[in-house]
């Protein structure tokens, strides 16, 4: 996959520049414009402008009122704008929860979204321990071998999963990386049942991650939250209790985004199973919170 590179060179497309200049004509108090109004504002010839507007109508970028003959912003802009606004809202609503999750678990907390075949880290809160997991906001990793990636993939439709598998090159990073589609599908079915995903040193030796999906107001999985740490700290014995913390955090963020449906039965069952360890974690939260005012000994 090609990735954007930093460059001092400025690229320009005449058609794209003209389309943007047309869209810039619309303002809060100028949402319905005549062809002549747009031509005057952009300096484009009426015949050129008409062809551009018709092409933009085809793609839903503008609409045309047949009665008044005036153009207005199209629904496609609303769809794209909603995605952008949702991303900002997601980061804003998630940060306090990320901080709390890092405090409770003592490990680094991440917030990620799916972009093509990869997950992208859009927010991170590091733990205060000396030994930490190297990661950065903006970093990409293959979805199939990360906890956050699998937490999202598990809740895609079957057709979407098949498309993902067909367009993804499976590379082995460690001896535990799932490189067979059949293995991944089996793992995703289990994740959908239990409500959380585990990266058991599949991307990097010595690193274990526990992740859970985040849903929007409509119930669609739009992101995932996780905690990651050295496998010597995030042991297999701790996975179940840490999963509760991560699922609680994911549910809290989902609720803040308008999601109202209760946890699935699998999630509730896990809560009952490890209720005592969760109590200890909550106790650790109070201890860590009070001690965080003092300089760390690490």
Tell me roughly what share of residues is in helical segments: 40-55%
> Per CATH, what is the topology of the largest domain?
Beta-Lactamase
Number of continuous helical runs: 10
CATH second-level architecture of the largest domain: 2-Layer Sandwich
- Which regions are unreliable across 5 or more consecutive residues at pLDDT < 50? 1-9, 263-298
What is the distance, rounded to the nearest whole angstrom, between the alpha carbons of the first and last residues?
39 Å
Percent strand: 15-25%
Structural class: alpha+beta
State the order of secondary-structure elements, H for helix, E for strand: HHHEEHEEEHHHEEEHHH
Please give the domain count.
2
Number of strands: 8
Overall geometry? elongated
Largest sheet: 6 strands, antiparallel
Rg estimate, integer Å:
24 Å
Compute the average pLDDT: 82
Q: Would you give an account of this structure?
A:
By secondary structure, the protein is of the alpha+beta class. It has 2 domains: 14-73, Orthogonal Bundle (Arc Repressor Mutant, subunit A), CATH 1.10.10; 83-291, 2-Layer Sandwich (Beta-Lactamase), CATH 3.30.450.40. Helix content is 46%, strand content 16%. The protein contains 10 helices and 8 strands. Helix 4 runs antiparallel to helix 8. The two termini are 39 Å apart.
